[in-house]
Amino acid sequence: MKILSRWALWVPILAFVTLVLTWGRDLPPPGVIIVAQLLAGAVLAAVHHAEVVAHRVGEPFGSLILAVAVTIIEVALIVTLMIGGGDKAQSLARDTVFAAVMITCNGILGISLLVGAVRRRIAVFNPEGTGSAFATVAAIAVLGLVLPTFTTSRPGPQFSPAQLGFAAVVSLALYLLFVMVQTRRHRYYFLPITTEGEVIDSEEHVAPPANRTALASLGLLLVALIAVVGLAKGVSPTIESVVAGNGLPQALVGVVIALLVLLPETIAAVRAAARDRIQTSLNLALGSAMASIGLTIPAIAVAMIWLEGPLLLGLGGTQLVLLALTFVVGTLTIVPGRANILQGGLHLGMLAVYLFLAASP
């Protein structure tokens, strides 16, 4: 089987062309259906190219590339929606980032553990690497999403300009420090471990792709991700209409968009878990959560130089409880370095609670 197959070559290009042709236009129902189909195809293509690149560069670099690429484009989408969103966009960054944290730390992590435990009875991973990643996610999440609820310099759940700038610098610094630890000083902590405890430093029995193929996949990965986020924005008016028509909270739009944007990482994580590469799955989940906060807060801080209106970052009471529960249960899941179907089910259950309360607060 060719590593760079024909469908994976043409689907991202076709999706990107469709994005260019439909950008900024109101789509009729048939157009929305076509865009949705191309969106699904672009997601699958993104996963394919991410796996090719990951196979070439090895772990944990492959997981890092996909997480950072998705997050950078996600940040661009948030800023774009905030520019023309009016009052509804004041809490868009908070809702999207919180949704990303809950989806990654409960959804992707939970389904990865469940798939691994069902296939091998026990899902094995490195608690040192996973624990350090989870601790960094918790620290950045509290800094960016919890503290604004309790600061007093500005009314409402928001930072003052000085506080926002400080939080942005600290968040970015913590993220860069983690990347250095993950890729250089303690790379061994983030390599996949089989159920038997064997560390996997490279894929077995399959020769890595050539540099030319890997570079082509890297370029097509970026094209596919741009198409995913752009087409998701294209169908967002339809999603908003459905949400408003059914009397659902506006925050649910951010949840749906986050689910669409995180599809490539979810599929890639499940595939890795099915191959007994649980550590790769957790690298994807926690790396995405960390990048989502660590890159979004600095980007939004810069964007607020020209954006008008308040930026609501602090979480409400229900969200704070769910975030705290996620961190407590996640810590108990990670510390042993081994998980069964119970831990996977617990995290998926918390994701279900979050989605239900997002629709029915």
From TrEMBL:
Database matches in Pfam families: Na_Ca_ex
In which compartments does the protein localize? Membrane
Q: Name one GO molecular function term.
A: potassium:proton antiporter activity
Q: How does it sit in the membrane?
A: Multi-pass membrane protein
Boundaries of every Sodium/calcium exchanger membrane region domain copy: 33-183, 217-357
- What is the top-level taxon of the source organism? Bacteria
Residue intervals passing through the bilayer: 7-24, 30-49, 61-85, 97-118, 130-150, 162-181, 214-232, 252-270, 282-306, 312-334, 341-359
Q: Name one GO cellular component term.
A: plasma membrane
Which of UniProt's keywords are assigned here?
Membrane, Transmembrane, Transmembrane helix
Name of the protein in question: Ca2+:H+ antiporter
